[in-house]
Design brief:
The chain contains 18 helices and no strands. The chain is an all-alpha fold. The chain folds into two domains: about 170 residues, no CATH class; about 210 residues, no CATH class. Helix 4 packs antiparallel against helix 5, helix 11 crosses helix 12 and helix 12 runs antiparallel to helix 13. The chain is globular and about 65 Å long.
Length: about 475
């Protein structure tokens, strides 16, 4: 079930909110748990049992970690292996078999496994729980249903943000919510919905149209249009989902951490990863980078640790060499910046402006890798972007977009910076301007719903991860 679907907006969410607020506070976790399981089972009923199995494994594993402290390393290791085996089987098994077949000219049959939606997200959340118990950062959760709620909580279940257990452990036990927070949550949800439906979907249609064609069918200018459109699509798609998840969390009393902080204003790739998909970056930092030694050891070992983290980051996104290379691409520039100090603020405006251009170019070329179906296509596309690919242009540049598309792209570029939010925050105490903002949000909601009614194009990019 999509957040940006009429079923969710006008049936599921109102019904869940109604029952959540009429029952006794002691029963609200139960309402949320049952609603979350129903939400997940709506599209893939059989895969809800995979998630339930994950819940049981981590519940038992954490109890073993807590009870057998002298053997806790063994208990936490076995639990994490079980988590990763689920992830490997559903997400990577066919990928490995197909590569083995290609490398050794073998003929092992593929299983054509369908991946459960959001398995990467809830697997990482499960691992965070058992590791937090191992580190004694949190007490073990002896109530199976409360742990099940943490792993299956529908606002962030299928596309994040990745919520670490120690960030919400107390909220699961007891949380307070008031009218003001519910209103803030509704506003945040509408902003996310508008970003998704009005901007991401519009930019996605342009990007899909271009990336679906052979590279020799479009010009260099069109290749740049496709890369920019996709960069806007993936940002507003994913940040829009995160906004909706954070807003929904507030409606139910949960406070999730921010997942994006205007990544396209970054002046280095290091800064980009402090602003992009923050929950994934911090997860890898806390559960991989620091345990490996972080930057507390030799410089060369630090670079190796960074390389490992970004290799895993790329692989986490999908079973395709393009994702792996995308991770290597970002890791390479992170290491380069650490070695040269390029990520540090020079204090000179023109230098910082050049660094911003550098960062945006690296990110754009990276998004081509991320979007392409294979490395061959990605390489041809990038060569086209820099004018090194012979093309025969069948359609004019302006055939790929309409006047409305141009308007939305301009809005996308503006709203990918803090300009609009700074203006809103400076006028938030003004009564009339505050009410104008509320009216604008209502209008945006109505327009978004009308777009949903009229369109069948409504994918979420990160659902496949």
């Amino acid at each position: 079930m999509l957040f940006s679907s009429l079923t969710f907006l006008f049936v599921f969410l109102p019904v869940v909110l109604f029952f959540y607020w009429i029952v006794r506070p002691q029963l609200r976790n139960t309402v949320l748990l049952l609603s979350s399981l129903f939400f997940y089972a709506w599209g893939e009923p059989k895969y809800v049992f995979v998630m339930i199995s994950t819940i049981l494994i981590n519940y038992i594993g954490a109890l073993a970690v807590d009870k057998y402290r002298d053997k806790k390393i063994l208990a936490v290791t076995l639990t994490i292996i079980c988590d990763l085996l689920f992830l490997f089987y559903f997400k990577y098994f066919d990928f490995f078999i197909s590569n083995i077949n290609e490398a050794f000219h073998s003929n092992f049959g593929l299983l054509n496994i369908l991946m459960p939606i959001g398995i990467s997200f809830y697997t990482f959340q499960s691992i965070s729980y058992v590791v937090d118990v191992y580190r004694e950062d949190v007490p073990v959760q002896k109530n199976l249903f409360k742990l099940a709620l943490y792993i299956s909580l529908f606002p962030q279940l299928v596309a994040g943000p990745i919520v670490k257990y120690h960030d919400v452990a107390e909220q699961i036990e007891d949380r307070q919510v008031n009218y003001e927070e519910i209103v803030v949550g509704i506003k945040r949800f509408i902003i996310g919905l508008s970003k998704k439906v009005l901007i991401a979907n519009t930019m996605g249609a342009i990007a899909d149209n271009i990336f679906s064609k052979s590279v020799d069918e479009f010009s260099t200018a069109v290749s740049w249009l496709g890369a920019i459109a996709y960069s806007m699509q993936i940002f507003f798609d994913f940040s829009g989902y995160s906004d909706m998840a954070i807003g929904l969390g507030l409606m139910f009393g949960f406070k999730f951490k921010e997942n994006f902080n205007y990544p396209y204003i970054s002046k280095s790739i290091t800064e980009f990863w402090r602003r992009w998909h923050i929950s994934l970056s911090t997860w890898f930092k806390e559960y991989v980078y620091i345990p490996l030694g972080g930057n507390r050891i030799s410089q060369s070992r630090t670079y190796i640790n960074i390389a490992i983290v970004f290799l895993l980051t790329g692989f986490w996104h999908g079973a395709n060499w393009t994702f792996l290379l995308w991770g290597v691409w970002h890791g390479m520039f992170n290491i380069l910046e650490k070695a040269t100090g390029l990520h540090k603020d020079s204090g000179v405006r023109w230098k910082e402006s050049l660094k911003h251009v550098y960062a945006i170019l690296i990110v754009l070329f990276g998004w081509v890798l991320f979007r392409a179906d294979n490395i061959t296509y990605a390489w041809a596309y990038i060569r086209n972007m820099i004018g090194l690919y012979d093309t025969t242009t069948y359609l004019k540049f302006n055939s790929y977009f309409t006047g409305f598309d141009v308007f939305i792209m301009i809005l996308a570029i503006v709203f990918s910076t803090p300009i609009a939010s700074n203006l809103l925050s400076s006028t938030s105490e003004n009564f009339w301007e505050k009410n104008l903002l509320n009216a604008t949000l209502i209008i945006l909601f109505i327009i978004s719903v009308s777009f949903l009614v009229a369109s069948t194009y409504n994918p979420f990019i990160y659902f496949r991860f």
